[in-house]
Specification:
alpha+beta; Aminopeptidase; 6 helices; Acetyltransferase; GNAT_dom; 173 residues
């Protein structure tokens, strides 16, 4: 795996040592809305996931990378999902774990690195993402990187008893 280095952060492959970090994120109910998670994940399941994290994106259709600072502190994760080799596209998701670390440019730099990787190493024609209508920070982040809103999915996600609309954004290289 190529290490993707930026000015303040780098993206790296998952390691067995990331078990507690991933377990904390996957079991944080405040972010379940963006990941469509419905139930907690056990350490056992995450350990199994990490044991298979070395598999190729062409096989598992997903690539999850840890966003780290240069003090080797894991700050978040950025994912490619629904990787479609035939049509040269993939979905993108990004999450900075601590709310105090959000809107400091970490997600911006991580997304920039991932977009470049998708162009140079995966030769992807397009990327897309799904963002809740009320997630202004993510909408700003992705549109800054050339993603355009191409649709609004009405009443798409049920969150705390209320339906929320979700935008579909797309970036074509």
């Amino acid at each position: 795996m190529v290490t993707l280095k930026g000015k303040d952060i780098y993206l790296r492959a998952l390691e067995p040592e990331d078990l507690e970090f991933i377990h904390t994120i996957e079991n944080d109910e405040s972010v379940w809305e963006i990941s469509s998670t419905q139930t907690p994940y056990s350490r056992f399941l995450i350990k199994q996931y990490l044991e298979n994290a070395h598999k190729d994106i062409f096989e598992v259709k997903q690539l999850r990378l840890v966003i780290s600072n240069y003090s080797n502190i894991a700050l978040g994760m950025i994912d490619l999902f629904d990787f479609d080799f035939k049509n040269s596209r993939a979905g993108v998701g990004v999450l900075i774990k601590e709310t105090t670390e959000r809107q400091k440019g970490i997600g911006n730099e991580a997304l920039e690195l991932l977009i470049q990787y998708c162009k140079t190493h995966l030769n992807l024609h397009q990327l897309y993402c799904n963002i809740s209508e009320d997630n202004e920070a993510s909408l700003k982040l992705f549109t800054k990187h050339g993603f355009q809103i191409i649709g609004l999915k009405k009443d798409w996600n049920l969150v705390n008893g209320s339906y929320k609309n979700e935008y579909l954004l797309q970036r074509i290289n």
